[in-house]
Every structure is written in C-alpha cells, then in structure tokens.
Amino acid sequence: MLAQEIIRIKRDGHTLARAHIDSFVKGLVDGSWSEGQAAALAMAIFTKGMSRAETIDLTRAMTHSGLVMNWRAAHLHGPVLDKHSTGGVGDKVSLMLAPIVAACGGVVPMVSGRGLGHTGGTLDKLASIPGYNTAPDLATLHRALKSAGCAIIGQTAELAPADRRLYAIRDVTATVESVPLITASILSKKLAAGLQGLVMDVKVGNGAFAESLDMATALAESLVQVANGAGLPTRAWLTDMNQVLGGSCGNALEVMEAVQFLRGEDVDTRLNEVTRRLSAELLLMGGLAGDEAQALQQVDDVLHSGRALEQFARMVAALGGPADFCERPGHYLPTAPVQLPVLAPRGGFVAGMATRDIGLAVLELGGGRRQASDTIDARVGLSQFTRIGQAVQTGEVLALVHAADAASAERARQTLLAKVQISDQAPAQAPVLLQRITAREGAPP
User: Fold this and answer.
1) Domain segments of the chain: what residues?
2) Which of 6, 46, 155, 367 lies 20 to 30 angstroms, CA to CA, from 121?
3) What is the mean pLDDT of the chain?
4) Annotation says 84 is catalytic
5) Separation between Cα atoms, residue 3 and residue 25, nearest integer Å
C-alpha cells in the first residue's frame, strides 16, 4: 500500500481505513515509511482530524506494534490498574497514588515518562533516589509488583515502538497538539501495559498543556471513549493547573514532599484532594470498593495506618533504592548548595500565578530539559511555595529557591517576583477537581 496514497486520502479530508492505518504503523516500525512521509501524514491528521473510529484503530495498531504485557503468568494478587496525567507543575500525584492503590489491594505497573519543557517527569523525580532503577528487566519488575504491589518505571524499547518514533517526528514538526495523536500516543502505551483499569488526570489552566476547559474536555472525552472502545475501562478527571500543585516543584524536592505526604506530614489540601479522588476512582474500577465513600475511606485508612508509606518503601527497595529510604529521605536525596528565599514585596493576598513560567524557572535552574538529551540537576527547584488565596505580609516567604549557584538563584528569585500576583482583595477560590468524565452509554466509538 503506497504511503503517498494514504497521505493523500487524509490530506483531502477522507477517512482512513484500518488497513491504511495498519500500513502506516507497520511502516513506522520497519522503516518503510520515511521521516518525510510520516511527518506528512502527521500534519494531515493535525489539520483534518480523525474520527473516533480512526483514533481507536490507530491506538490499537500502535499498541500491537511491540510487546503487549500479559500478567496472567505473573500470578499477581489483584487487579492491574494505572493512572496517567497530562502533565503539570509540581504534579507528584503518581508517587503517592501507586503505593496507596497497592496498599488497598491493586497492582500498579505504572509506565511513566521523563519531563520535557515546563512539566516535570515522574521518572526524573524517582531518579533522584540513589540506586532506583527506572528500567528494570521483566523478572525484577515482577518481583517488585509481588513485593510492593507497584512499580513506577519507564517505557521499554519493546512497548509501543511506533509511538516512540511518531512522537519524535511530531515533536519537530509542530504536530504535537492534535487530540487524536495525543490520545493514541498515551493509550497505546497503557494498553500495551496490560491494564484492567485506567484513570486519566487531564490538567487544565495556565500551567497545563490544555489551557482552556473546552480543549481539556475534548481531550478527556477522546481518551475515555477511545480507551473504552479499545477495551480498556477508563475514566478521567479534569483538574485545575492554575497554580503549582503542592508546596514544591523540582525532582528531589517533590520526592521529599511525596514521602512527607505518605507520612501525614504537612499535607497540601489541593494535592490531597486530587490524590484521594484519583486513587478512589481506581479502587472502584478494580472492584476493590463498593462505592465512592468506601473507596475514599480505604484511601484514608492506608494513609493513616502507614501502609501506603510501607508499599512505597518496598517499591524503592525492590527497584534498587535504599531499604531505609523512607526512614531517612533527607540522607539520600541530593540538596542544592544555595537556598534563597523569595520575599513578598508587599502585603495582601496571593491572587494568581503564571504557573507555566514557574515551571520554566525550574527548567532554567537545571531541573528540566530543553531537549531530551539534557542532563537534569535533581537538587534544584522551589519549595515552601505559596498558594492562591494565602494572606502574606511584607517580607514573608513566597517560595524558597534551591539552586546550584547564587547567580541562578537570583535569576529565579526575580522571575518568581514577576510571576506571582499579590492583590489587596482575597481571590475567589477555584476548586482543584473540576469535572469527572466517564464513558457515555451508547456513544459511537
């Protein structure tokens, strides 16, 4: 089947048949489609869109372009569940959710990614733990899941290889912001992980990929409908990303906050709301709770009892990290040599923040990547971050900059002063949980 004919069909606004999509995905893997041809079809999809049925076919084909995990032989003790976020600033929910769900009886083989641009990556956070292996072999992964009930790892070369090549092409051809292509990219990896249930956290706001509620809703509905159409039960929550989630952003700093969360120390209200709700959603999907109230109570129980913290500690140890990491995280996590407070220039109320720019400030400190090959400084970032609605006095700390040197710390301080808004009036408090999206009965695929 000629690549140029498939490109022409979509370029002219017509629907691709499953055979066309299968040929494209096969060409991505075996190299029979050139970079230019793949880029041309990506641009045609970007401009002309895809029907729900086409998106399902693309997702399925990319899923089966490599290894699809089958957990039957592993004899795992519970339903295989996972969560995925579209990315935000300070979003460390996965670090707590995986052990919470594991402590409640689920099994969470979470395939996560690295950060690029203003959003942090879960793998980069875990890489700040000495010895933690984000790319274990299959035997090690199975042992981790049996001992801890969860394992947060990276995408292997065998999982959805078509997605890896297509994403690299989209990244350099301005075709990333396509709902069908985003949907297929995310879900192909999740379907390949052999899941029985998935919850999506679709961020919306000035620190999210989807800045508008309309775009976030369209993406969430696409993810939910396509996943269910491809055989993976999926629900989604739209959550607010108009401010940093939690009190820190930066790799080692976020791991420390996650451990403190699991210990019950200094728990941020908004972070708690998102983590509890998404965890409870997975318990319901896995049949581990009978209703929402029971699911939320189970989440609270494993947090208060310390069982979720224990599962996190087991995961770290099973994947090569220190056995006593959760007892002495400060001993193991790297710390920046320079810490500089950002002081409020006036009194009032924190009324807003340019969240994306704050994420970029962490990148400028060395805590993120401009390109995939960049090395990350796990030490740097921001802690003690202020929340919208918080009352502050002149000279009070808005955030604490953690930097490699005094010059970069000062640049970050100046950036934050320009990106955090203080007003005389307390702002209206926006909820962090905006909308729940579920599969519609009788909806077309």
Assistant:
1) 3-49, 72-329, 335-423
2) 46
3) 93
4) yes
5) 11
